C-alpha cells in the first residue's frame, strides 16, 4: 500500500538577556531561557481488510459465474485521509496448453483472458446514509479497468465511471466517500470515526459466439488462470495554516483528524453529528445554470448487418463554477424519433443528485 506523508521538522529557541550596571563598574549578569519546540509528524495509516468469505483466490470458474470481493477500509492513523486511489494489477497469467483436442483450448494472452470479465465497483460508508451506496464503476471490461487504474492517463470509457470519482491528475479512481451532504464524513476521517466498504463484483461473461464449425469461441480460455492484486493508496488533505482553535492544550493538532483539514476548505460540521443530522454550518446554496448535450453517432457491422451506436455527453454547469459531466451510450436503430437518455451528476459540495432527460436524433433525420 502506498502511503504519502508530509513531515515538518524544526527547532526554535528564544533567548532572554538581562544586563545590569552598578557601582561605577561593569557587572554583567545574564539570564538565558531556552525554549525547545518539538514537532512530531502525524501518521497516515490505512488498513484494507478482505471481508469476503471466499478469499481472494478462486479456481474452476465457468462463463456466467459472478463473484464478489469486499474490502473494509479503516483509518487507524492520526491524520484524516482525503481519498484512497485504487490500482488493480494482474500477475501470474497461465495460458493452459491441453492435448490434441484443440476444441477446448487455444493460445491466449492475459489481455484476451481479462476481456472475458466485467467489473462493477460500489462504495459505501459503514455508518450508512449520506447518499450512499454509490456505483463508482459499472460493468467495465476488466482489462480496460486495469488500464484505467494504472495511472497511465488512460481515461475511463464513456459513461463507465462516475466522474466525481475519477482523479484526472493521477489517472486513478478514488474508491471512498467524496460527496454527501454531511462533509464531516468525506474521505476517511479519524474524527468522526469512519470506515468505508468497497465491493467489487466481477462477472465471467457468458458470450454465446461460435465459430463456423459450431464450437464456442470461449472454449479457448478453458484452464487459463490469473491473479488480481488490489492496491489502495491513501492520500492526505492539503496543508493547513495552524490556528489556536486547531490545537488542544497538549499541543496536539486535533483539526488534522477531520475531513477538509486544509486551507480554503469548507468548514466541518459539528464533531458529534451523524450523517444526515445536519450539524455545522449550512451548505451554501448552489443552483444549476445550464446543461449542454453533445452526441456522437457511429456505425458498425455485426453478423453482416449494419448497426448504429450513439454516445451522448451532458455537461452540467453550476452557479459556484462547478462543471460535471455524464456520458451514456446505447445501440440504436437510428429512427426519426431519436434516442432518449437520462443523465445524472452528484454535486461534490451539496451532495445533491441532479438528473436531466434529453433526446438526441440521428444527424440525417433517421430512417
TrEMBL record:
Pfam families: Peptidase_M73. It comes from Cytobacillus firmus DS1. The lineage of its organism: Bacteria, Bacillati, Bacillota, Bacilli, Bacillales. Residues 254-263 have a biased composition (Basic and acidic residues). InterPro entries: Peptidase_M73_camelysin (IPR022121), Signal_pept_SipW-depend-type (IPR023833). It comes from the Bacteria. Residues 254-285 are annotated as: Disordered. This is Major biofilm matrix component TasA.
Amino acid at each position: 500500500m502506498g502511503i504519502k506523508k508530509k513531515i515538518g521538522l524544526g527547532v526554535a529557541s528564544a533567548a532572554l538577556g538581562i544586563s545590569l550596571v552598578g557601582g561605577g563598574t561593569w557587572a554583567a549578569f545574564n539570564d538565558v531561557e531556552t525554549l525547545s519546540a518539538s514537532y512530531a509528524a502525524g501518521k497516515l495509516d490505512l488498513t484494507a481488510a478482505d471481508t469476503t468469505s471466499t478469499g481472494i483466490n478462486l479456481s474452476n470458474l465457468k462463463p456466467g459465474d459472478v463473484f464478489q470481493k469486499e474490502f473494509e477500509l479503516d483509518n487507524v492513523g492520526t491524520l484524516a485521509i482525503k481519498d484512497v486511489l485504487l490500482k488493480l494489477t494482474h500477475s501470474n497469467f497461465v495460458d493452459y496448453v491441453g492435448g490434441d483436442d484443440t476444441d477446448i483450448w487455444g493460445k491466449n494472452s492475459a489481455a484476451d483472458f481479462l476481456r472475458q470479465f466485467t467489473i462493477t465497483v460500489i462504495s459505501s460508508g459503514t455508518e450508512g446514509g449520506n447518499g450512499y451506496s454509490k456505483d463508482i464503476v459499472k460493468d467495465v471490461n476488466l482489462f480496460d479497468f486495469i488500464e484505467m487504474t494504472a495511472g497511465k492517463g488512460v481515461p475511463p470509457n464513456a459513461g463507465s465511471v462516475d466522474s466525481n470519482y475519477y482523479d484526472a491528475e493521477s489517472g486513478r479512481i478514488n474508491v471512498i466517500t467524496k460527496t454527501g451532504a454531511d462533509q464531516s464524513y468525506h474521505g476517511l476521517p479519524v474524527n468522526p470515526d469512519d470506515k468505508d466498504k468497497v465491493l467489487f463484483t466481477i462477472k465471467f461473461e457468458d458470450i454465446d459466439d461460435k465459430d463456423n464449425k459450431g464450437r464456442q469461441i470461449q472454449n479457448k480460455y478453458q484452464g487459463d488462470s490469473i491473479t488480481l492484486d488490489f492496491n489502495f493508496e491513501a492520500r492526505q488533505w492539503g496543508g493547513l495554516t495552524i490556528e489556536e482553535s486547531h490545537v488542544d492544550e497538549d499541543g496536539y493538532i486535533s483539526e488534522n483528524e477531520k475531513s477538509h483539514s486544509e486551507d480554503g476548505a469548507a468548514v466541518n460540521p459539528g464533531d458529534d453529528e451523524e450523517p444526515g443530522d445536519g450539524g455545522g454550518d449550512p451548505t451554501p446554496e448552489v443552483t444549476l445554470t445550464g446543461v449542454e448535450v453533445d452526441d456522437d453517432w457511429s456505425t458498425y457491422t455485426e453478423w453482416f448487418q449494419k448497426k448504429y451506436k450513439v454516445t451522448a455527453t451532458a455537461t452540467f454547469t453550476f452557479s459556484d463554477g462547478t462543471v460535471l459531466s455524464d456520458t451514456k451510450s446505447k445501440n440504436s436503430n437510428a429512427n426519426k424519433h431519436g434516442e432518449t437518455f437520462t443523465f445524472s451528476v452528484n454535486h461534490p459540495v451539496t451532495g445533491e443528485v441532479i438528473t436531466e432527460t434529453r433526446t438526441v436524433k440521428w444527424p440525417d433525420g433517421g430512417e
